[in-house]
Amino acid sequence: MDTVLEILRKERGAHFDPDIVEVFFENLEYFLQIRTEVGTDPLAIGHVVWSERDLFDM
Questions:
Q1: pLDDT in the model for residue 20
Q2: Domain span at residue 19?
Q3: At what angle do helices 18-26 and 28-38 cross, to 10 degrees?
Q4: What's the mean pLDDT in 3-11?
Q5: Residue among 2, 23, 55 at smallest CA distance from 12
Q6: By C-alpha distance, which of 33, 34, 11 is closest to 21?
Q7: Ramachandran category for residue 44: left, alpha or beta (phi over 0 → left; psi -120 to 50 → alpha)
Q8: Which residue has the higher pLDDT, 51 or 29?
């Protein structure tokens, strides 16, 4: 996480919209709280798990 935050700070204005980065950092504690409450299990947060078979049946 620290590496990601450092990249966002360093690349603000070059690769990332400075206004979006600012809003992101203003709300970082809120995002971290959501992650703590929801967890990081993709299935718990509503991600659909696809198999290769599912993709070919489409």
A1: 97
A2: 2-56
A3: 60
A4: 95
A5: 23
A6: 11
A7: alpha
A8: 29
Q: How far apart are CA 56 and CA 37, in angstroms?
A: 36
Domain total in the chain: 1
Tokens 């990601």 map to which residue? 4
Mean pLDDT on 18-33: 96
With contact defined as beta carbons under 8 Å apart, do 8 and 24 qualify? yes
Binning pLDDT at 50, 70 and 90, where does residue 37 land?
confident
Residue type, 42: P
Specify the amino acid at residue 34: I
- Whose structure tokens read 């696809």? 50
Mean pLDDT, the chain, whole residue set = 84
User: Radius of gyration of the chain from Cα atoms?
Assistant: 16
Confidence at residue 28, expressed as pLDDT on a 0 to 100 scale: 97
